[in-house]
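Please review this pair:
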Amino acid sequence: MRRGAGRGGAGSGRRPGRYVAALLVPALLLGGCAQSVRPIERLGKKAAEGVRPHGAAHDQAYRRWGLTEPLARPPQPAARALVLTPPDAVHRPLPLPVDHVATRDRVVFLTYDDGADKDPRFVDMVRELRLPVSMFLTDSIAGPGYGHFARLHRQGAGIENHALEHHALPALPYAGQRAEICGQQDRLRSRLGLRARLFRPPYGAYDTTTLRAAADCGISAVVLWRAAMTPDGLVYTHGEHHLRPGDIILVGPDGATGRTLRERTARVLRRAQQRGLTAGRLEDYL
């Protein structure tokens, strides 16, 4: 079982069998703090590296949303490849848990869990900044507010699967795990008319049974994270304590300071801009 702090987790590219034995203690996610990074050139000077600015009309919105410079438009990604492990002796190929996308594009990916925060102004932020985000929804938390997520989806947000209830899946047998994942697939289809390809297990906890159940429910990748925005700033599950191209970021809750989802998102974007990065659409890469 692999476990992360909060409502998500972090993984690596090792084979699923290694995940069964490995346990990521929740304190790991909270144990390291992001190091300070030195401001670098404005993203407008990064065009040669494949990061292009938005049009002038959209550049006018950045200050309103707490940014100090316009948000650069991500480059066009290469063709997407399914993220799968080799099949076992009985079942179809298993989705590979990922917390980082192997890409040279100077992008990071913003992800949000559960669906408890339904701030309508966040929809305005996504629209005005053309901000690519991925929302992993749990029915027992997101409902009955699916209308909010339908509005986000119309602005280009990805809507993905975070299970029907927020149970730790490895405690359940295959039938129970499949019911949690496929049940949320059915709920997203009936409420929003879409079929999710990506799945984040509650608490980041999963085992090989979780991967089998996810594959049987039509999931192509199990999405974890390498970095998380916490009340204390960005923290990392492993590797360098700074953002890298391809990092998947969880924009987590902030009950300690009361920052809004918009403010937390702006904090992540400012840190990404300091590293010469911008936000990319996760569904274009996985």
Observations:
- The mean pLDDT is 82.
- The first helix runs from residue 16 to 21.
